[in-house]
Amino acid sequence: MEAGLTQKELIVKFLEAQGNWIPAYALRGRQTLIGFLGHQADRRARELAAEGKIQHKLNGKYAYYKALERQK
């Protein structure tokens, strides 16, 4: 895990590295190259989306998250 990163920062970095939509359930308890996302990663992702720091969409009853598009 990268030293000093919060759970939310890890989620943002993970989503940036993925580059595509990730279902909320796939974030829970996930071990990544930058650290462990934990069992409440889906809740933290929901909070990040409410803060406008990541994208959010619903597909049926499932939530999906994606990093914000970078400004050129």
SS element count, helices: 2
Structure summary, number of beta strands: 3
Largest sheet: 3 strands, antiparallel
- Which oligomeric state applies? single chain
* Strand composition percent: 15-25%
Q: Biggest sheet: strands side by side, in what order?
A: 1-3-2
Number of domains: 1
- Would you tell me which CATH topology applies? Arc Repressor Mutant, subunit A
Please give the CATH architecture. Orthogonal Bundle
Report the CATH C-level class.
Mainly Alpha
Poorly predicted regions: none
Considering DSSP H and I runs of 4 or more, what fraction of the residues is helical?
25-40%
Following the backbone from N to C, one meets helices and strands in this order, namely HEHEE
What integer is the average pLDDT? Answer: 91
- Structural class category: alpha+beta
Q: Rg from C-alpha positions?
A: 11 Å
Gap between N and C termini: 29 Å
Notes on the protein architecture:
- The chain has 72 residues and is α+β, with helices and mostly antiparallel strands.
- 31% of the residues lie in helices and 19% in strands.
- The protein has two helices and three strands, in the order αβαββ.
- It has a three-stranded antiparallel β-sheet with strand order 1-3-2.
- Helix 1 packs across helix 2.
- The longest helix has 12 residues, at 7-18.
